[in-house]
Amino acid sequence: TVTQFLQDNENGALRKFYNVIMDNGGEVLTDISNLGEITILAPSNDAWAAKSVENNLGNREKVRSILNMHIIKGKLNVAQIHQKNAKMIAQVPTVNDRTFLYFNIRNENGEDVITVEGGGVNATVLQADVAQTNGYVHIIDKVLGIPYTTVLEKLETDPMMSDTFKLGQFSDFNNQLNNTKRRFTYFVPRDKAWQKTKLDYPSTHKKLFMEDFSYHSRSILERHLVIADKVYTMNDLVAMTAESGDSVLLPTYRDSLKVKVEEEAGHLHDDSGLIEWTGYVITWNFKKINVYRPDVECTNGIIHVIDYPMLEERDVVVNGG
Description:
Elements: H1 2-8, H2 15-23, H3 27-34, E1 38-43, H4 51-54, H5 60-68, E2 71-73, H6 78-84, E3 90-93, E4 100-108, E5 111-118, E6 121-132, E7 135-140, H7 151-157, H8 162-170, E8 183-189, H9 191-200, H10 202-208, H11 214-224, E9 225-228, H12 234-244, E10 248-251, E11 256-269, E12 276-284, E13 287-298, E14 301-306
Parallel strand pairs: 1-7, 8-14
Antiparallel strand pairs: 1-2, 3-4, 4-5, 5-6, 6-7, 8-9, 10-11, 11-12, 12-13, 13-14
Helix pairs in contact: 8-11, 9-10
Pfam families: Fasciclin (PF02469)
Organism: Ceratitis capitata
InterPro entries: Adhesion/Biosynth-related, FAS1_dom_sf, FAS1_domain
């Protein structure tokens, strides 16, 4: 079994992973035993040596949620990851409440490279499909859930955010996102979100992605970037909305962003349509926007990946004939 495999690894490639579980009371091992079919993403020994990781190991509650982020109910092997990824980046729930992993497969020199993203960290699978009687172990090169990149580095490297990154490059908007003295909450439309605007507002979309219109794209991105002395998680925003009884005002670069953030049960589901989970919905300007991926942590902020930009057709108006 997977449990037995981890115990047998007391001196092997997953020695550190096993030790962290045992140093934190070993309950995670009991959970693994009780789950039946299971998939574990096990960080390698080297992954635990990173400074950012070592700094978090003293916080027992944090370590527990980090360990849970590496556990998936059910068997998930490379063939299934391929299948899930046929249409889009695969989103898979973990046993850590409302935390998902995102698998991506790219081809390098004829070899498949599988990456997995969780809690703001992008890790590469070093050894996949270590099969056990009740599931799989995949060995990864980083510990998930302990961020090590700034908001800018995250945008630049995440395959889901490349269009927003590109827009921000036109006007040098992105430069500020490396500032570690600031705290950013960035609502980032994923690539699919921009593709939807191409269908809804073809000429607006076309102009936005031309460098000549960088003034317009910058003002739209500024609307999505909250700059404050703290970050706002989705739970924070839900609580603030409930408290105010209406919308909340968040400070942005030039102005403020007026949004209402609520939870909606069952509007998010996996590709099969069989597994549903509660998701977050933002209401902006009478439009409802789903949060595709909440709380992607970075060293100087947090990113919420959204399903549609906060955009009106009139945002890109060009005067003169």
